[in-house]
Design a protein that fits this description.
By secondary structure, the protein is an alpha/beta fold. The protein has 2 domains: 217 residues, 3-Layer(aba) Sandwich (Rossmann fold), CATH 3.40.50; 148 residues, Response regulator (Rossmann fold). Helices cover 40% and strands 18% of the residues. Strands 2-3-1-4-5-6 form a 6-stranded mixed β-sheet, sandwiched between helices. A 4-stranded parallel β-sheet has the order 8-7-9-10, with helices on both faces. A 3-stranded antiparallel β-sheet has the order 11-14-15. A hairpin with a 2-residue loop joins β14 and β15. The protein is globular.
Amino acid sequence: MMRRAALVVACVVGLAGVARADVTIGAVLSLTGPGASLGIPERNVIDMLPREIAGQKLRFVVLDDASDSTAAVKAFLKLVTEEKVDLVIGPTVTPTSLAVLDAAGKSGTPFISLAGSEAVIVPQEGNRRWAFKLPASEALMLTAPFDRLKAQGVTSVASIALSTAFGDAFVVAAKAEAAKRGIAWLGDERYAPADTSVTPQTLKILAKNPGAVFIAASGTPGALSVIELKARGFKGVVVHNMGIANPDFLRVAGKAADGMILAASAVTVAEQLPQTNAMKQAAMAYVQLYEGKFGPNSRSLFGAWAWDAFMVFAAALPGAVQGGQPGTAAFRAALRDAIEQVKDLYGTCGVYAMSAANHNGTDARALVLITVEDGTWKLLQ
């Protein structure tokens, strides 16, 4: 298995081979707006990627959707109609990823979403046959944190969530995980990504006296509830999701984040992983490359997902070129089919085993339980 990962990494740094027509890779990313702290490291990674693998020249076109669903659709259509892209990396967040499904299906263009929700790829039919995503499922992200709540004797939980499809999906998953463990669900409150205060929502949640609060938000907007809970003297457990695992969140949340728990991709704490961890080798290789260019502690798992998206593409490319010339519908369909055949690919954020029925392909190896201590991520398991 590790040999396969080494072969894909070799592709990423460049190999010799037979040249064909250029492959065009588009990217629709949240470079501005509430999702910018996620999209900027994704763009950084795309700037780092090779422009040729196995003798195959690559062209990249990156567009900003400003974290807006309408803008994401316009950007995707521009890539399809004007740039004739063969693959799209992104969008960055769940609402924008859901918004482009119709455009992807109608144009027959595969895309690898960097968003968190399973709704992007489930059910695997219709337009979603062209969609892949790399973050683990909501249920998988919540398994370890809710196991910890149960072990600590927490008997009740409430939630503060974004009023988006991302928030909806996580609240549904959190309710289910709480029920499995006999933890009472006390309700949820919502806020918009552009909101600058969550005081009313926080006060309503605190009035329920929960033992834990689960926050379903991504990017720097995910810091609002953490800061407010701390300011209001909440003494229970704060559980977050890995949509906030980036340096900007730690900067904005400050000391208020200390003690919160979440399951996140291993790359977040790569140096702290034991040598036996299946993810350590690929995670460390990425960290050294990224932080070698952008400085110490600059990594985020969002950039790492963009890196893994390229690794998935690189693994699928040899099969895809057998199906047609880049720039054609036949090549795009062959690329989609070849991605479904990617197996045992060790990325920075998961071991990917795709199939026609599973366009995510990760398992429990994709995640570790972490906390925040003195403003830094710390491994708990």
